User: Fold Efflux RND transporter permease subunit from Aequorivita ciconiae.
Amino acid sequence: MSKNPYKEFSISSWAIDNKMTVYVIMAIILFLGVFAYYSMPREAFPEIIETKIYVSSINPGNSAEDVEKFITEPLEEEFRGVAGVKEITSTTLQDYSTIIVEFEETVAIPIAKQRIKDKVDQVKAETTWPVLTNGAKVEPNVFELNFSEEFPILNINLTGDYPIQQLKDYAKYLQDKIELLPEIKEATIRGVDDKEVEVAVDLYRMSASQVSFNDIINAIKGENVTISGGNIITHGVQKNIRITGEMKDPQELEKVVVKRDDGIIFLKDIASIKFQEKDPTTYAREYGKPVVMLDIKKRAGKNMIEAVEQIKTLLAAEQENYLPESLDITLTNDQSIKTANQVNDLVNNIIFGVILVVLVLMFFLGFRNALFVGFAIPLSMLMSLSILSAFGFTLNTMVLFGLVMGLGMLVDNGIVVVENVYSLMSEGMTRRKAAKQGMGEIAWPIIASTATTLAAFFPLGLWPGTIGKFMIYFPITLSVVLTSSLFVALIINSVLTSEFMKVEEEPVAKKKLIRWSLIILGVGILLLVAGFIMDVAALRGFGNLAILSAIMLWFYKYVLAGAVEYFQYKSLRQLEDAYEKTLAFALRGKKAYVFLFSTIALLIFSFILVGIIKPKVLFFPENQPNQIITYIEYPQGTDIEKTNELTKKVEERIYDVISKYDDNGYNYMVESAISQVGQGAGNPMTDGGQGSDMPQKGKVTLSMRDYQLRRGVKSSDVLEEVRNAVKGFPGASIIVEKDAAGPPVGYPINLELSGDDYDEMLRTAENLRTFIEGSGIAGIEELKIDVNKNKPEMNVSVDREKAGLVGISTGQIGQTLRRAIFGEEASTYKEDDEDYEINVRLAPEYRYDESVLFNQPITFRNNQGKIVQVPISSVVTKNNTASFSSIKRKNLKRTITLYSNVLGGYNGTEIVNDLKTELQNYELPRDISLAFTGEQEKQADNMGFLMLALFFALGGILLILVAQFNSLSKPMIILSSVVLSLAGVFLGMVIFHMDFVIIMTMMGIISLAGIVVNNAIVLIDYTQILIDRKMFELEMDEDDMLTKRQYFELIVAGGKSRLRPVLLTAITTVLGLIPLAIGFNIDFFGLFTDYSPNIYIGGDNVIFWGPLAWTVIFGLTFATFLTLIVVPVMFYLVLRVKIKVRKKRRMKEITKIRARQATSSERLA
Assistant:
């Protein structure tokens, strides 16, 4: 006997029997979801914490080669043996070493950090570790970085008719206030240097007085000090003795005695004391005018938008209460605005998608039933937000796109539930019974379809590397959304349909409509008036929404209701009849084979077409720049003043370019223009860009206005104009870049040489650059080498024999020269709670004179206590040379990298392929190897993972389907529809001239695999239910088979019955993505609160997410045809084959029986 197809789903039946509990659950979900939405921190992109540990060491006065030899190499050797280490890279500069140790992702950061700390301590203890001039060992700093804390979210610029130090004082005041905010990590002052007390020594007076640097430094240390002398008791009272020697004014240093032999020598006799700015290390300007700038960085996990709002509130209060009116404060590089716009655009895309989806549902299911399904959208999303918030997720574009992607999918389950219950009620069942039996029929199919979708996205959750950490929020969000929608469908929708569903909608009586519309209208007007009086935008918004709702009630009754009725009872039935005839036509005779093989041929044709057309292949989407950054670099050793002058000239050319976009004082393309020289002027992709002194570097940053304000001008065109304008400065390297879309992936052209001999490697890199530049490959902006040997250096060699004879050491010589040039901090001067260094060095006219420096005497007492003076030049020889600007290493091998951006209109992948072809016969020295790294390396790695993820997704889907159907043929039919749907993807890509974006297109294909199977599952499962019912009615066994004609009729009936949900799920998924795919933006909040809809097409979100959305749209549109025609065809062909096989078996059995009977008859005869 075949299995009974009439059954219930226990969980849904329990929910129907306990509706009050379900109503309470709904209320809890709504409350928690709304709370989560408003409390989740907003970010443009998710925070990425890499499993990298940084080790930085400072050893002043040493060349890059020496720092590498004594610090970098010993540490790297030990780090190599640490468990879990994936890659070791390092950069060694003069005085400085940075090592980055990347661990496998399975290693927790605290554990990794401790392992590295232990190795650092071991190396310090077991090797000849460098020491500082004060005798202390160099102390490496071991730390991890959170990149969200490293990039400024806001620049505060202070200008006005004030001395630069006064501006700095105001900046310092604001810095202290801002850093008290819990959301802020730090506020760094740029554009002005700290002050110091400089003791500028007159070399000739010091020598004539037979005074040494040691005498001066020790004298200052001994005088500028406050000491506790202990406690005494007098007359029963304990008193603390405190000797206060700290100076109240820098000029007090003039009276410090530095020598008493043969007369008293005061400090003023041999040096001048100045309280002044340090030598400049940074300049900052806004539109060419000097500013003191505050770089604001937020703490990890904090709400960027909230942080900037608090800063703006603080600034407004301080400008009103403390800061002078004449002080100009401007805010630039405000990332919160861009973040808010991106987040709001996606939220509005969701709202617009919901409207479209509900509108379609209304036409297919009627107003009341559409509300049941439509209610699942906000409920599922709010449930998802509460779960994501509980796991500590921020509300970023990755999460929001997961919600957009799930928008159309999450109604799928609700559609199937409502439509099935609706069908059973149409057959005469009571509402309650139809709800229970309807849930019983489709519960497991929708669980299976949800599980298959989750299986498709599960491999994406295993994505390794930085990009994986960046993209993982998408599959997690989508999985949470789909799980939430399944819960809503099985629990919430089952209760709502059992209580409120009606087969036929009764027209609303006119009196009732008037009453309800007047009530809603009255409430709306009250809220609107209150909103204007109290100036509360939310009240105005709700008021306008209520008024619109009252209007829409009448619009629905007299316009939409008729259209809906016509569509449901005429157009839809005509469509069902047409589909029934089409499907019957496709199933008859050999036409089934024609449909199947034509579809396969179309898939093959699409692959061939893509091979012929060859769409542009990109790693990430090419974004329109939101920032245009011009990096300026002179050779190492260039004075900051020279770099500053060049930066000013570059600024002038850039401002000439952007001035053409000025409209009566308003520049509609550029929001701000900030230039920096020295500190903070580096390129984050090559040298960190923030902390160290970079006197040879400058940069000019143009922050572009929001997309909708650009009046149709492409910011990429402005970038090309700037790139052309800044050419022609000999002796300097100037490159123009844009901000990156997505996680950092390196330069598109990145050739990495590795070996041991750095001189030979550098020669090879220069020869390679010359070869490439002469190859004629177009599109390369400028090939740069990340290492050079043009850093001026003077090598000083000590004649140890001569020095030993006169009683001085190499250390004394080095210390004297260092004190003369760089100086030494002798003590600290305190003023207004600020500490300022007291630095002792030679006066400027001496310390920059090479002859004077090396002819200066070293003054000391010999063994007999006699003061001796020995000129440095008598025991040293010197020669001018050049050293490496830096030494780069990767996995203990020295590396040099050639890198470049790609010019507009060119493709990095194509250029790299051309380079590989050109370099096939290029001979490298034997001990040097070449590899393409950067973006190309990451592109290959991620493409490999995504292909593997696709196969794992298909495998997971197959496993679930086999478990669902207990069959192999049905799962293979369903998976075939996934493969065949690729024809739609590739044809759409070719027809609409779209790029193949590796990350986004592949994610779209993987997403498609999970989406396409849903309709096929529901269709085949329902058809199987009809087959089971027929066999149950005919009292057939499970192993029996119906006739070919019966299968034909049941497949056509199943297809016709599932036409509505299949079309609905496809249309809703597509419509949910359409606003984002075409970039249609409308501000619903602005529309209802301020009557400002801000409608425009385009923007950052469509550029970033458009390729993924279009991949799903193309594939799903074609897959709908597959589901409705080709899947039933394949199912029918399989059944026909089974019938033929069954017939052949029976014929063989009959033949055998007859043969045995004939044999028996012969024996009897």
